[in-house]
Amino acid sequence: MIDMPHFSLQRGAQLALRGESGSGKTTLLNLIAGILKADSGHVLIDGKDMCSLPESGRDRLRAGNIGYIFQTFNLLQGYTALENVMLGMMFGAGADKDFALSILGRVGLEDRIDHKPAQLSVGQQQRVALARALANRPKLVLADEPTGNLDIRNAGVAVDLIRQICGESGAALLLVSHDRNVLDKFERAENLSVINRTLNN
Fold first, then answer.
1. Which pLDDT score is estimated for 4?
2. Mean pLDDT, the chain, as a whole number?
3. Quick check: 185 and 163 in contact, CB under 8 A?
4. Which residues, in sequence order, are CB contacts of 10 under 8 Å at separation 6+?
């Protein structure tokens, strides 16, 4: 589904990329998502070239195919958990309250749907971000250091949940982290520096 020179990730595959701070992990994800536009080369998402599209086209392609779990979660502070998920849906096929409630229940937040981010623990905020990323039934989920704000136990729970839900939905998962405990949960983990060298050749 993602296809770059010498690097591809098929639907349903799960890959972790290891890289220290400043190694370009977030930049790579933003290029794949079309938040940044590559100076050269191609980023193919479900057969469509993200790099050939104007910003509005990249936004539409991202909304219809990609779920993004940001490191800082990027939740809207003035809105409830349910509203955050439903607002994310507006950029895709449209808000579906029943599915939003279903996915929030799936991540264990059925009793927190009316809570705003400041009323939630960090772990609960992370689960809202996961629900929002999955709300448009994406083909690809990008996760940028999704456990960086969690303790070791909650980080493990979060990664297991992300992997499980992506597996159930058939979405590909590309997760970047510098945390060895997170990386060890993946059967397939690669060093970002190797990927960078490959893409630059």
1. 46
2. 88
3. yes
4. 1, 172
d(CA 14, CA 164): 10
The CATH number assigned to the domain holding 50 equals: 3.40.50.300
Q: How many domains does the chain have?
A: 1
The pTM assigned to this predicted structure is 0.87
Q: What's at 85, amino acid-wise?
A: V
Phi, psi at 121, each rounded to 5°? -70, 165
Structural domain of 139: 2-200
DSSP 170: T
Cα–Cα distance list, 192 to 18, 51, 186 (Å)? 6, 21, 15
Among candidate residues 2, 15, 7, the one with its CA nearest the CA of residue 138: 2
